[in-house]
Amino acid sequence: MEVKKCNSLQEAREEIDKVDAKIVELIAARNAYIKQIAHFKNSVEEVKAPDRVADVISRAREQAISLDLSPNLINDLFVRMIDAMVESEIAEFKNAKSY
Question: Distance (Å, rounded) from C-alpha 31 to C-alpha 23?
Fold first, then answer.
């Protein structure tokens, strides 16, 4: 990951805004895949997939450490994101099964 050397506060803020936009786009893409996954599952319990959640969070924490980033920060972000997406996936699952 390459980080541009900025020459001003404004330039650094503009770069942060670009990164933030990419983060939101990536989260939206992740959520779109989550909605697709709901159609391959057979129960709400399967949607919740606690073993998979633990695996995803563990990998994210390891990546954070390798990038010299707080694993606790990444853990908290992923827990919040996954909790919200599981709720979205449950809604998608129930909607798909009602047809």
Answer: 12
Angle at 21 between CA 15 and CA 27, to 5 degrees: 135
Domains along the chain? 9-97 (1.20.59.10)
Give the pLDDT means over successive 10-residue stretches in the chain (99 positions).
94 98 98 93 93 97 97 98 96 83
Give residues with Cβ within 8 angstroms of 38, minimum separation 6.
Answer: 47, 89, 90, 92, 93, 96
Quickly tell me which residue has 């989550």 as its tokens.
34
The structure's pTM equals: 0.87
